[in-house]
Write a structure and sequence with these properties.
Blueprint: E1 26-28, H1 30-51, H2 60-77, E2 79-81, E3 96-101, E4 107-112, E5 124-125, H3 130-135, E6 143-148, E7 151-162
Parallel strand pairs: 1-2, 4-5
Antiparallel strand pairs: 3-4, 3-7, 6-7
Helix pairs in contact: 1-2
Length: 165
C-alpha cells in the first residue's frame, strides 16, 4: 500500500494510557529490584526489535512496549530497596519468609515482597495484602487472624527468617 493513503496523525501515533502506579511506597527486595531491571532491559530490547521490523503498519505492539517501559522506569525510580538481613529479627517484616500453621496443622510458607514481585502461585505476597497486614509485626507463637472473603482463618506463626535473595 502506498504511504500516500495512510493517515499519519491517527490513533496509531497516540501514546497508550499509562499503566496505573500504586500509591503505596515501593519497597523492593534485591531479587525484586533485579527483576524490574531485567524486565526493563527485555522490554527495551523488544521495542528495538519491533521498530526494526520491515512491516510496521501495526504500531500497537510498539506503543504497548513504550507504555511498559514508562511503567517500569517509574517503578525503578520510586524503588526503595530493603536488605532482608537488616530487617528486625524475630518479627515478621517486609522481606521476611514466614511459616504459618492453620487450625488443622497444615503449614504454609509465605514471603513478604514488593508489589511487582508478588505472585500468589509462589506464596509471595505484597505488604498491602490482607494476609501480609495480618502477619506484619507478629512473632513466633503468635496467632494472627487472616480476614478473607471465605471467612476469617486463624494462623499460628511457626518460623520467621529473612529472605535469601
Amino acid at each position: 500500500m502506498s504511504r500516500a493513503f495512510v493517515k499519519e496523525d491517527g490513533p496509531d501515533t497516540e501514546l497508550l494510557p499509562d499503566l496505573p502506579v500504586s500509591p503505596h511506597p515501593n519497597f523492593v527486595t534485591p531479587r525484586g529490584l533485579q527483576a524490574l531491571r531485567d524486565r526493563l532491559a527485555a522490554t527495551q530490547a523488544e521495542l528495538q526489535r519491533l521498530k526494526a521490523r520491515a512491516d510496521r503498519l501495526d504500531r500497537l505492539p510498539e506503543k504497548a512496549a513504550e507504555r511498559d517501559i514508562r511503567y517500569l522506569e517509574a517503578r525503578l525510580a520510586s524503588a526503595i530497596p530493603v536488605d532482608p538481613a537488616a530487617q528486625p529479627q524475630g518479627e515478621v517484616a517486609f522481606a521476611s519468609r514466614v511459616t504459618v500453621a492453620d487450625e488443622a496443622g497444615s503449614e504454609t510458607v509465605y514471603e513478604i515482597v514488593g508489589e511487582d514481585e508478588a505472585d500468589a502461585a509462589r506464596n509471595r505476597i505484597a505488604p498491602q495484602s490482607p494476609l501480609a497486614r495480618a502477619l506484619l509485626g507478629a512473632r513466633v507463637g503468635d496467632i494472627v487472624e487472616w480476614r478473607r472473603p471465605a471467612g476469617t482463618l486463624a494462623l499460628e506463626v511457626i518460623a520467621i527468617a529473612p529472605l535469601q535473595c
